């Protein structure tokens, strides 16, 4: 997120230059000096101390990492720690009371809701951005450019057989398909299972990982590989991957925003613990900062921002939890 660092540095340098110019003006009076000192004191008073903890989706991680990086400049005395154990793993820690928020690339499940209720943890869902789950193949794969949902289901569903590209089209290579998939704790895994596999078992030959970068490396290193993960990870690595159209539609900023990229367009969330917002000023401030900047950060890392009114609604909801 270097470009965000540069923006922050530019703002700081601009402020320093402005203050230097004011300091060189010998005509300033004591009232102006006192006013500047008071303003500086007010700014210091707004500085917070404390800690905030989150965990969850690797898909959401690029957004949150960008937010954390910028927030450190705004509130350097607030320690924000964010793990990436997948949506399911993040909810497990959230249910156990270990975190203030859980990042998710899917909606919370009924069983997770029940466990939170049993634990006495009230929570609130906040939308951050939209994503297009992206199916990718190796750059040497010049045949699987466009797959239907039915073809995806055919090759990714476990049926006890060795899967070959020629199973989809006899003109394609009679070579075994190598599969790379997010792990079972991933919300991306759950979403793919729901909209593509209809709850059937994922092919057992797949290599599973909660680390999307490992999936990227796997697909990039094998001519017969196929994998899937969040759109931002494809954009970051598009020089070593080929994107696959689904039902004739390629995931792009526009097709994700319009909803034309179906059924693999999806919202991304963070779930916040209500008591953390009420009792921990640092947690409230960080989540407020997150919603205020999520749209810009989402666009910067490759996702699609929500309508401004949706972020405004989220901020109103968050304020109501205090």
Walk me through the structure.
Helix content is 47%, strand content 18%. The chain has helices at residues 2-23, 30-45, 61-74, 86-95, 110-119, 149-156, 187-197, 212-220, 231-236, 253-258, 274-279, 281-301, 308-320, and strands at 50-56, 78-82, 101-104, 123-132, 134-137, 146-147, 178-182, 207-209, 225-229, 242-243, 245-246, 265-273. The longest helix has 22 residues, at 2-23. The relative contact order is 0.17. The complex is composed of two ATP-binding proteins (PstB), two transmembrane proteins (PstC and PstA) and a solute-binding protein (PstS). It is found in: Cell membrane. It comes from Lysinibacillus contaminans.
Task: Describe the structure concisely.
Part of the ABC transporter complex PstSACB involved in phosphate import. This protein has 13 helices and twelve strands.
Structural features:
single chain; 322 residues; alpha/beta; D-Maltodextrin-Binding Protein, domain 2; disordered N terminus; Phosphate-binding protein
